[in-house]
Amino acid sequence: MPILLDREAIQSTIHKTLAPKLGTGVLTPFGEQDNARKAFKNAMELLPDYIYKNYSKSDTLTIGFIQGLHRLLYPEGTKVVIYRDGIYHYNTPGEWRLYNDKTEEDNHPHSEQINIESDMIAFTCDYNLIETKKRTDVLQYYFDFLRVHPFADSNLTVISIIHDLECKKYGFETMDLLQIRFEDRKFYLYFLYYYENNKNKMGILDEIIKLIDDFHNKKLSQKVIDEKDKIIIKTTTELFGKKIPLVFDQKDILEFGKKLHPHFEKEGKQYLVRQVMQNIFHPYFLTKSQEVQEKCRGQFEQHMEILTKYVMDEYINNPDGLTIECIRGIHKNIYGGLTKIKVKTTGGEEEYMTPGEFKTKPNGISRLDNPGTYLFCTPPEKVVEELQKLLSSLHEGNENIYKKVIQLFLTFTEIHPFPDDNGKIGMMLADLILIKNDIYPFFMSSFKLANKQRFYEMIQEYSHGSEKDMVPFYAMIAESYASLYEQKGMADFL
Fold first, then answer.
1. How do beta strands 364-366 and 374-376 pair?
2. What DSSP letter does each residue of 151-212 carry, written as one string?
3. pLDDT tens, 279-335?
4. pLDDT tens-digit series, residues 104-154
5. How far apart are the C-alpha atoms of 103 and 124, rounded to whole Å?
6. Does residue 247 lie within any of the structural domains?
7. Are 88 and 367 in contact (CB under 8 A)?
8. Integer Cα distance of 149 and 156 in angstroms
């Protein structure tokens, strides 16, 4: 028999469900914790009463309740903006997504937009008809919901709330799946893929629940630990509908870079630093007229050599590691001795920038989903403080170097310390950090050049999406290394 949940029990349950999102700072763009706490507080004020009135006293789940739950996750008047296939889709919270989440070539399991309503009704009715519910039934509903993926955003949040409430309602231990998602994404993906790729789905639900319980009790077997650590790149096919060489499905991404180590030794750090500079700045040089290119080619090459030497002396060969002064010096050397550069502010006004000096006015990043508006970055007075935190996180801890590189690039982008050229320096630093650590760079700027729209979408989805998803950036590294393998005749590794 279901338990009648009072407001206190409901509030306690959803607080536990949503807390992992607050803890990771993903309730708001750029991890602004004050805004995150306000959003969290707002949800905690509205949701318990809504759930008590529309769910607690009912023996069944209803489509209207699910849509209302989604609606309350967003401030009044909000539009959920999603970019797909060159089109911006403006969803109202609480309505089904307005686009198809797959292409003809993609094997994405989500329901077609036209079938969302009927699919939701079908599996929800099946669930409601179960007289004596078990934990496996609640977990099955969770998987069915994710397969339909009815909303434009926050699907995982909605179903996690429902899942934990249903567990409480029927006297089960909650599985805290949203906590797993943010605490160990690899394990979360591991059991999702294990379920999706198994034909006997009903037969393995008990096994998956045991895995989840083992995770919370820190009793995962070594076999599962080894298997989950191979899963992180597997999502590249689902994310982009693009075939990635099998090697990227089987080994940690650190191993992919190691395959290029003989080339690293042969080419040397100075050559690779020079290539990083070339890849970033040469495309801009090529936009000049043929006459200007011929006239200034020698000057351009000399500029690249000066910039390379500065980086080698001040960072690569410097035992002190990356410093704020080094970053400022790189920015200064980009301009080859010029003291004033005219740039446009975020508001469209013209001002003069001093190369190597941090911004003195607020700036932002143009939003793809709302042209003419901006995601505002770290205010000028906090730039040094935030950069110090960023560099401390780079130099401390034992996290995978690629995770550190991605995090540094994304955080540097969010800080946006200079009036201009933040993107160039962020991409440059990502590759230079790898070279500093004796790892072959993946040349982020080359990926951006070949995938410009996708590159900016990845950054903006990370920056102002509901989840801080780094998987597309791991895919970027994987694809970049695959391209390098082909260029260097390493087909045996693909």
1. antiparallel
2. SSS-HHHHHHHHHHHHHHHTTPPP--HHHHHHH-HHHHHHHHHHHHT-S-TGGGHHHHHHHH
3. 999 888 888 888 888 888 899 899 999 999 999 999 999 998 999 999 999 999 998
4. 334 446 899 999 999 999 999 999 999 999 999 999 999 999 999 999 888
5. 26
6. no
7. no
8. 9
pLDDT for the residue 35: 52
CA 159/CA 143 separation, integer angstroms: 9
Q: Who's near 227: CB < 8 A, 6+ residues apart?
A: 190
Query: In the listed set 183, 209, 242, which residue is the last one of a domain according to the structure?
Result: 183
Residue 207 inside a domain? The answer is no
DSSP reduced 3-state for 87? strand
What is the identity of the amino acid at 438? D
N- to C-terminal Cα separation, the chain: 55
Q: What is the spatial distance between Cα 449 and Cα 446, in angstroms, rounded to a whole number?
A: 5
At 141, the amino acid letter reads Y
- The domain containing residue 93 runs over which residues? 7-183
- pTM of the full predicted structure? 0.55
Rg of the Cα atoms in the chain: 25
The residue from 158, 183, 208 where one domain ends is: 183
